[in-house]
Automatic annotation (TrEMBL):
Domain of life, per lineage: Bacteria
Residues annotated as domain ATP-grasp: 162-369
This protein's name: ATP-grasp domain-containing protein
Keyword Nucleotide-binding (UniProt): yes
InterPro entries according to UniProt: ATP-grasp
Amino acid sequence: MSEVVELIVPNSAEYHLRNPALNLTGDERERVVRFSGTYECEHAVFWTDNPRVMVLPVGWNEQWYADIHRELGLAPAPVVSPAMRTGLLVEDLLKDGDAQGELRGHLSGYDTVRLLIVGPTPETYLLAAMLRGWGLTVELDHLPEDDYWASLYLDSKVSALDLARQLPDIRVAQGMVVGNWVELRGALRSMTAQHGKVIARTLFGVAGDGSAVVSDTPGSVEEFLDNAARDSFFAFPILIQEFVAHADGIGCPAADILIGEDGVEDVVLCTLTVEHGYSFRSVDVGEGALPAVWGERLTRTAHELGAAAHKLGYRGWMCCDCVAGADDQLYVTEINARRSGSLHAGGLLRMWGAEKELTLSAHFMMPVADGTTYEEHIRPVFQRLWKSGVRAYPTSVRALPWPDPIIAVIAAAPTAAEAHKIVADIRQGIHELAGPPSAEHPLAAESADPVELPVASGA
């Protein structure tokens, strides 16, 4: 028998929905299940080049999957796709005996399974127990079940505030936490009068959902309150912080942090592109993603936060999001106790041994025209790039049949500017074959910009 196989389970949706304090309903829940539970799962194909078995939701494109593995020089990993009952990947696997039987067959030649996930949930520990019941040794890439509380705690926006009180070099924006509508209205009026602009965030959000910028413009507070009352992301308590003025041209620094038994093992630097001050769109990854001085500040912050999380019993990947302030200070905005959306880029850098040589630019929601297909319109664009030796890939294509279709792409180059140019050329090439997205597409404005550069985010 072979020694170790990795079982890759990108459980994004159930991770985002796991917290008992968050009760998403209606459109908000459906959006998380569809986007995080299917579309984002495909990025996990790029996590590692080790022997592995993938668990992916039904609907992945076989031609795309074969192309990606061929261009990366990898044998295609076996895929198990459980019947979609809930849209939550691990829960659906635990309810599908046929999928379990298929998975057991793929793992039968191995002694040890290393379980790689987005982040822990009660269901992932049940999955590990099932694998042990099959006689396999299971290695977790995350914290043990007894320390699960630390994942829940660190993932809350409040954890960054707590750690800033304990760690003198960690800086956060001024703010307050409110627990009801009366406090919320009063705090917003008080803080916008003091700061002009603030950002209101729930303790558990997803890619900008659960956040909003509020200003001292007449009617802004009441408009926010009206919208929040209809949005199930906005559950109390709510954190209100000063919207920090930003350093020009830096974007929003972030770091992926790997914590092992002995402490911080790896730090991957990133800078995020957002819209409206909080809504995540793209990320540049690698040492070239940030100017050196900001990279050094972020690295120090990542090691401090990682050491503090280690003391709490946390293990595995986590990420910290920050703002580069116009006052030349780095502000921590939150900790996400999971694999971030950029870790497929980090996986490619490690796969190529190019952490210091390349910067990757990952764009998560590139709008395309209705009727665009992978085989007819997207594959030819990438085939030309691959033939020329360009390292660029479509990282998710399953949203092509959706209303307002999108794809995700990633490109690698020696500099971020060169990677942005490759992404712009990909966009243009797809539009030449399939036409541009309709003017009614909610992301149509993005297709008009030849290169997307990082912009500032709220603290």
